[in-house]
Amino acid sequence: MQRRGRGRIAYPYVVWMAIFIVVPLFLILFYSLTEGDIHNIKDLKFSLNSYNRVLEPIYLKVIGNSFLLAGISTLICLIIGYPVAMIIANTDIKYRNLLLMFFLVPIWMNFLLRTYAWMSLLSPNGLVNRFLLWIGLPKLEIMPGKGAVLLGMVYNFLPFMVLPIYTVLSKIDKHVIEASNDLGGNSVTTFMRVILPLSIPGIVSGITMVFLPAVSTFVISGLLGGGKTPLIGDLIEQQFLSSRNWHFGSSLSIILMIMILISMAVMSRIDSSPEEERRKI
Amino acid sequence: MQKAIKRVYMSIIFLFLYAPIIVLIVFSFNKSKSRGQWGGFTLDWYIDLFRDRQIREALYFTILIAVLSTLISTIVGTIAALGINNMTKIGRTVVLNMNNLPVLNPDIVTGVALMTLFISIRMELGFLTMLIAHIVFSIPYVILAVLPKLRQLNKHTAEAALDLGATPAYAMRKVIIPEIMPGIVSGALIAFTLSIDDFVISFFTAGTSATNLSILIYSMAKRGVKPTINALSTLMFLTVLILMLIINKKNDKGEDIII
């Protein structure tokens, strides 16, 4: 009786969630399926026009670009980040926390500031180019453009890849690795058949934690892409803040949510399949 | 040999991570206003920082909102977690799924959805809407931090307290709350950092009357940043660094640091 009664103290929060989490999402769904003056609800009528507009080649290209750039940056983060996680996990315990801390300090800085700093580093007369000129290499002209956007994504989200992989790697029982070595596995086989499979949960959550913010960003593309490579986030921001076309903006948001849901479902499948195999053994 | 490769690799990574921060710090002492030119050493931007009304106001809003939203979302989130923990299985699943929506949804969708709501109910965008938005996205993290601690809680301790004559409120204060305190603290820390660092959701819900630091930096970055911002980021970086060093020192017994 005590238990049943105490469940009720969560009800105010349930009401809060209904108002500020569920209703707003339904509003987005509602606006995506209607057209007309947004300030006059009586004037709105059902329409799929804004979804049709999403299918126009120019917008499909934007959506494709977002997923492509987010995918590439996730892959780069994985390739660069995995060794980092391994090195940190294998560092002597005395220095490990310090190393991890110095790795994480930058993400505590406002990320707009860091992105802004890259703007001055990468600009045509920026420090990177001066350095390249000084050592006699050709200029790097990636800003504004896709290259700079990719760099910004990798820079901002790399820690989110390293952290979960590090957590998983540091929990692997050292005896398992020793056993593999004792049984004649060289370092490559040990890595491929023992360490890598055991770290898949970390990789999966790393991929989700990088891909999700990368695919929906509008800050990085806005600052480093110079409007040349608009992403779906830029498009949504434009529709809500400058074009004031809530219907189109809402359909784009719904599409973004659905595509993210699909990618997450795929990722959780990958995460669970080795688990099942292991259980079978 | 292998060790050398590791060293070089980590050095490159750290150079990549710290290059922009070093640039901000160096240019905060730069006399010349341009981002590429070194015009001599100066502390003018630091003096400017304390005079600049815009930056001061943005800093004030950022901290005020972070403190208020952390306070409110920690209290509400902890109470909600206590309730959720005592719900039936179906109720708990439904509530937790709703609770997870702002965690899983891209920030931009949460931002535009809340903005749509506020404008639809004719609420003027400003300080209050930004505060509500911050509470909305913070509570879920508090609940996710507190719930595991409640699961680990030994039911019998609270029952023993009640049997020994404690009122439910007294048992809550003296038995349950101290047990779940680590979860509450880490929930509050997450809420605070998320609020301080948030740009996207604030951007959509703040309107024009309230500006936090992130919004100010964004609008400045599009137009060209005042070097004052470099000075501010240097101070922010030092604060973070010192805080982290203190936390690390306290946790020096080989435990993982709190992130």
Helical amount of chain B: over 70%
Largest interface: A-B, 84 and 78 residues
CATH class descriptor name of the domain at 56-233 in chain B: Mainly Alpha
Provide the helix percentage of chain A.
over 70%
Order of secondary-structure elements of chain A: HHEEHHHHHHHHHHHH
The number of helices of chain B is 11
Summary keywords:
heterodimer, A: 281 residues, mainly alpha, MetI-like fold, two-stranded antiparallel ribbon, 14 helices, 2 strands, 76% helix, B: 259 residues, 11 helices, 78% helix, globular
Explain what the structure shows:
The complex is a heterodimer of chains A (281) and B (259). Chain A is mostly helical. Helix content of chain A is 76%, strand content 1%. The longest helix of chain A has 35 residues. The radius of gyration of chain A is 24 Å and the shape is globular. In chain B, helix 2 crosses helix 11. Chains A and B meet through helix 1, helix 2, helix 4, helix 5 and helix 6 of A and helix 1, helix 3, helix 4, helix 5 and helix 6 of B.
Quick structural gist:
By secondary structure, chain A is mostly helical. Chain A contains 14 helices and two strands. In chain A, α8 packs antiparallel against α11 and α11 packs antiparallel against α14.
